[in-house]
Amino acid sequence: MGSLIWFSQFLCLSFILLQFRVRSSSPSQSSLDSPQHLCHPEERSALLDFKSTTNMVEGCLGTPIIQTWNESIDCCLWEGITCDKPKDHVIGLDLSRNCLEANLTTNSSLFRLEKLQSLNLSHNNFSFPNISFGFHRWKSLTYLNLSGTRFHFFLLFEISMLSKLISLALVSQILNFAELGYMDGSLLFEISLLSKFVSLDLSHNDGLLLDNIKFQMLVHNLTELRFLILDSVNMPLVVPSSLLNLTSSLEYLSLSDCNLQGNFFTSIFNLTNLTYLRLSSNKLIGPLPYNISGLSFLYKLQMDNNFITGHVPSWLFSLPFLSHLDLRNNRLTGPIDHVEMPNLILQEVYLSNNEISGSIPSPFFHLVNLTIVDFSSNNLSGTMTANMLSKLVNLEILDLSNNSLLSLSNDGTVVNYSFPNLWFLKFSSCNIHKFPSFLRKAERLRELDISKNKISGQIHKWEMEGMSLCRLNLSYNFLTGIDPFGLGNVVTIDLRSNLLQGSLPILSTTWDSMILLFISGNNLTSEIPLSYCNLTFLRILDLANNSLGGKIPECLGKLSNLTSLDLRMNKFHGRIPNSFVNGSQLRTLNLNGNQLEGILPRSLVNCSKLEILDVGNNNLNDTFPHWLGVLQSLKVLILRSNQFHGAINNSMPVFYFPHLRIIDVAQNDFMGLLPSNYFKILKGMRVVAPADKVKLEYIGYVLGHNNVKCVLVRICSMSHHDINYKDSVKVVVKRLELELVRILTIFTTIDFSGNQFHGEIPEELGELNLLKVLNLSHNSLTGQIPSSLGKLAELESLDLSSNNLEGRIPEQLTNLIFLSVLNLSHNEFEGHIPEGRQFSTFSNDSYIGNSGLCGFPLTKKCHNEEERGALPSQFDEEDDSTALFEWKFALAGYGCGLVLGLSLGYIAFTIGKPWWVVKKVEKYQQKLVGRCNRRHKKRKTQKPNQRS
């Protein structure tokens, strides 16, 4: 009985405990608020371990989502994580574009996420330093994106184990082919094992070379491939027939910049399921097929930048789904074939830079969905009427420029044509005689370029009313006037090279948003109106080559946003404004060819971004502006033909003028010694990088979104094409005054001619090995030409004429293989003129006025070896036989080895390799110098009668 009571009590207690457990396990409000870790602990731990091994790429903005992972929150709720809801396994990880960097080794914690189905690590700085990885542990992975990451192709063997993979992206910067030496067929064999591939992208791999065999190996087993991207993979040996092995299921094919050669069109156009085809920037030749039966699903076709010939076939405009056609920069000729069944889906057509002739077929204007049409730079003819254009109601961009036989007509009637979406229209270099006033109802028109035409007379306000133009280019016409009140909120206007007369246009209050104003090359005669100082957003003001007069307004120097002020070749007088403000954005100040007086304004030191200062051909009276040396961006300094005077400081700080490339102080009153220390600090004229690293760039800048105030971006977008503004100056090169319309940053010149400098030419000039033009003529220089000038390997023009220089012309000058102009006339040189190389091309004019010179090209012959200086006349007795032996062999090999020797020698001494050659020659040179020194010392110690 007692045991029964005990058992009943036990059951009651168990029931109570069970109820308590059930209640405690039910989700109360308090329990819902408490931390829960629903994802599996081992997966949560793996993610936290991975977080601890990653770093943020230096210089990146923003916070990587991995940094937001919080241990107290369920990892299934972390950003970038996807979990399988029923089982709470981590099945997806997306860390794309997160500025992360890490080495993913075999033991990486990522491989512990064994249920992973989708992984996206694209556009980070992940690298895979090991050959073996843990990819095989991801047995369920179906989506993998490693685009833009630092992996190599040892990964492909691991990836090939992923039997369930249906999407793979290995895009863009795939590295280390050459470094790893893994470029044999086994690489492609590994890829070919991935027979379930739907997408394969091996683009931008300069080290990958595909021939026919490798290409066929690559695509043979990829029977389910739908996307193939091989852009910038080198494929010059792949023949057209190889493309027949591509699966018919292929939808997306991109083979741009692959060095493909031949006619691939028939093979590719048989891929009937293609929706995207890109063959840009190859060497494809031949005409397009006259007829095709496939490509019924194609929506984008790009074959620009090739050598395609023949007519533009009509079927291109009849493909039922084609929306984008790009055939620009080819060799298409003849008229466009007649379009019988126009495709009403076509939106963008690019046929620029071909040789297409004839008129545009009228059915073309029934392609009502066209938004962009670019037929520029062809041979189109006929008349484009307003009625034709008005049918393209969706047209946004139309470029028909550079078709000299094409004209534009207003239809001869007053019709209110409507162009509801047109915002960019370019008819430059066509055959237009009148301003297209029919566009005045194009309310969305933002950019109109009708430059280089035959438009004459005045443009009235009524012709432009209704337009909301931001950019207007009327340059290179025959305009005599324009009503500025019809221009509205125009941001840039170009009126260069017209026949405008009288006063500068008075800017209305609506022009306060002006950014660029070009009115150079006209016949304007007024002063600059003070209203121009109200253009607070103005970046470029170009009033050059007019007859403007008066004083330059002081307030122009206060336009802090102004980057270029070009007032050259006018009649301005008085002083240059001394009002340049702190923080000025000025990069170019060109005042050449005026009547300005006084000194250079010291406020120019506030223009810390100044690159070009040209005040030549004025009446300025000042000393050398050494204080400009603090402007670290200054590249061009032209003071020519003024009244600058005094000596040039020879003790300027080493950080002065670090980027100066052009200095012209000719035709002034400078005096004293040439500043040797000044030449030492001109780092911009010396090689500071390997020759293959020097970029051919122009001095100037691009004016785009970053250069425009936000308020102006709202008024007028500059997204179609930025304005690439290049500076220009006049310099004297090779005896001629030339205008450098574009200034290459590698062009360097020093012109100190026409002054009163005396003393010797500094040896330091020979260190400026990027110098192309050196002019020290018309001074009072004495002494000899320093042999160091023979090191100016880039020198093209050397003018030392009209000085008091003496001695022999150094043989080292024959090393100047690019020298095309040499003027040593009117000095006191003597001896034999050096022979060979460029010296055989110079005429008598280079040497006249030097009575002591002899040899070619002068008629005066040299009569003995002492005059020629060709061979040593005296040696120490102990060296006579050796010297004679050496010269016999030198002369014997001269004829057959000249060209090869000069070429290899120049290369060797330019790059310093091979070092043993340079060292050998330098050792022999030191030996000859030693002989000469001993001989000179011996003769100096002899008595006069002994020497005689």
From TrEMBL:
Gene3D superfamilies: Ribonuclease Inhibitor. Its main location: membrane. It is a single-pass type I membrane protein. It is found in: Cell membrane. Residues 1-25 form the signal peptide. GO terms for cellular component: plasma membrane. Belongs to the RLP family. Residues 40-84 form the Leucine-rich repeat-containing N-terminal plant-type domain. This is Leucine-rich repeat-containing N-terminal plant-type domain-containing protein. The keyword Signal applies. Keywords: Cell membrane, Glycoprotein, Leucine-rich repeat, Membrane, Receptor, Repeat, Signal, Transmembrane, Transmembrane helix. The chain crosses the membrane at residues 889-909.
